[in-house]
């Protein structure tokens, strides 16, 4: 694991997870607001959100696969090495902070994809420093919000012209 990834795990463990959901985000007119946990669940299950999360991962995967054979061949090993610590972080820090009696699986899945995506972006920053889609979402989590969805008019608009849905 890269030292930067270890530092990111430490940083993630200190976030005030979901402390400000439902409050206005202080900056960023290019945000759409969810209105409740139920609304955020709908956004998590929205096909466009699911597509955007997959596309976000493919941006990095495609870049590394075409520019750095050595690092690309390590992809599965690196990804597997992140699973257990990510699950521990989810179970011990993130999920307990969600103020719901039982967290719906689509919410868990989206959060897990964002965290996993940010960690893998961190691991491969040496190969593709310009691809930081999931790491850009961390600023919302860090401020206590939940980026629960995406909106864009056309697939070519993603990610540059996509709008984040925030709860």
From TrEMBL:
It comes from the Bacteria. This is Uncharacterized protein. It comes from Tuwongella immobilis.
């Amino acid at each position: 694991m890269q030292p930067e990834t270890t530092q990111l795990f430490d940083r993630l463990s200190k976030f005030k997870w979901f402390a400000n959901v439902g409050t206005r985000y202080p900056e960023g007119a290019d945000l759409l607001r969810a209105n409740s946990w139920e609304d955020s669940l709908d956004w998590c299950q929205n096909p466009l959100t699911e597509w955007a999360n997959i596309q976000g991962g493919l941006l990095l995967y495609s870049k590394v696969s075409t520019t750095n054979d050595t690092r690309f061949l390590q992809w599965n090993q690196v990804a597997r090495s992140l699973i257990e610590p990510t699950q521990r972080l989810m179970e011990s820090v993130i999920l307990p902070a969600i103020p719901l009696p039982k967290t719906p699986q689509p919410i868990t899945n989206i959060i897990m994809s964002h965290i996993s995506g940010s960690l893998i972006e961190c691991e491969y920053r040496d190969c593709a420093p310009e691809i930081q889609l999931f790491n850009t979402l961390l600023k919302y989590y860090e401020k206590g919000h939940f980026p629960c969805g995406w909106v864009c008019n056309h697939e070519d608009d993603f990610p540059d012209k996509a709008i984040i849905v925030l709860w």
